[in-house]
Write a structure and sequence with these properties.
- This protein is of the alpha/beta class and 271 residues long.
- It has eleven helices and twelve strands.
- A four-stranded mixed beta sheet has the order 8-11-9-10, with helices on both faces. The chain has a three-stranded parallel beta sheet with strand order 5-1-6. Strands 2-3-4 form a three-stranded antiparallel beta sheet, covered by helices on one side.
- Strand 3 and strand 4 form a beta hairpin.
- Helix 1 packs across helix 3 (65-77) and helix 1 (7-25) packs antiparallel against helix 10.
- The chain is globular, with a radius of gyration of 19 Å.
Length: 271
């Protein structure tokens, strides 16, 4: 993903707007924010297997919408960004244990997760959809339309998609996968009828596999607020991140990221 006119030049604008805040707060920063400033780095936890949100390239570099958002966050703090990739279901535990400073990895905000960590956002609102060759699955307008024995779905292990199937589609057959490409391979092999995931992932998988015969009609089956996860014991870090996100959204950088990675603004995601 190159050739993004004006984006990186606008990072300088963001730094100008927020770095003063970071400097002014150094003397009074809470535990988590002080740790980040003392190290001179913001450690991002992300899965690296959720294109276009977070994906590891063949050369090992991790890129995506969420990675760019974290890079803006580090720039606003005046520190470097360090990226740690790990399985999705280990991310929030790593945040609780202090192994990472922030988790940005297409994480849906829900009450269970919010009992353990703090969330800022949402920076995006998504919904469930199905990657499939079967038009019956793709055009499902309500969850109960899929709750039948012949529905065979794959979902990412530890994701809200997996919980969605377990709770709302108990009659369906669920297969857990470690990455989305594995789910796509299962569809191609006829082992499952579809992969249940979030709307941006559906768009990315369809783009990645243009000749796979996937049905292009997607159904938003749930409300999925996507947020930034941070430790819950530092009110100043929470306040800083809230103001950071407001500024990024206010000067249009979220929409620029969306155009870069999805091909259209966030505001058009449900059209």
């Amino acid at each position: 993903m190159t050739g993004f006119p004006g984006f990186y030049s606008r990072i300088a604008t963001l730094i100008f707007l927020v770095v003063g805040l970071a400097i002014a707060q150094t003397a009074t920063a809470g535990k988590a924010l002080s740790r980040i400033q003392d190290r001179g780095e913001l450690v991002l936890g992300t899965s690296g297997n959720m294109p276009p949100m977070s994906q590891k390239q063949e050369d090992g570099k991790v890129v995506g919408f969420d990675v760019d958002l974290a890079r803006l966050m580090a720039s606003g703090m005046g520190v470097k960004l360090t990226i740690k990739t790990m399985p999705f279901n280990e991310l929030l535990s790593a945040l609780e244990e202090g192994d990472v400073d922030v988790v940005i990895s297409n994480v849906t905000v829900n009450p269970q997760r919010n009992m353990k960590v703090a969330f800022v956002g949402p920076y995006m609102t998504s919904g469930k959809c199905v990657i499939t060759r079967e038009e019956r699955l793709a055009k499902a307008s309500e969850a109960e339309n899929l709750n039948v024995p012949e529905t065979r779905l794959a979902a990412l292990s530890g994701s809200t998609s997996a919980e969605f199937v377990k709770v709302l589609l108990p009659k369906a057959t669920l297969t857990l996968v470690e990455d989305f490409d594995g789910g796509v391979r299962m569809i191609k092999a006829g082992k499952v009828g579809g992969l249940l995931t979030d709307y941006p992932i559906c768009l990315a998988m369809q783009k990645k596999y243009p000749d796979a015969g996937f049905v292009s009609v997607f159904s938003l089956l749930s409300y999925e607020p996507i947020g930034i996860a941070i430790p819950g014991d530092d009110s100043l870090y929470l306040n800083w991140t809230e103001n950071f996100l407001l500024r990024v959204e206010g000067i249009g950088l979220l929409e620029e990221l969306a155009v870069r990675w999805f091909g259209r603004p966030i505001s058009e995601a449900d059209e």
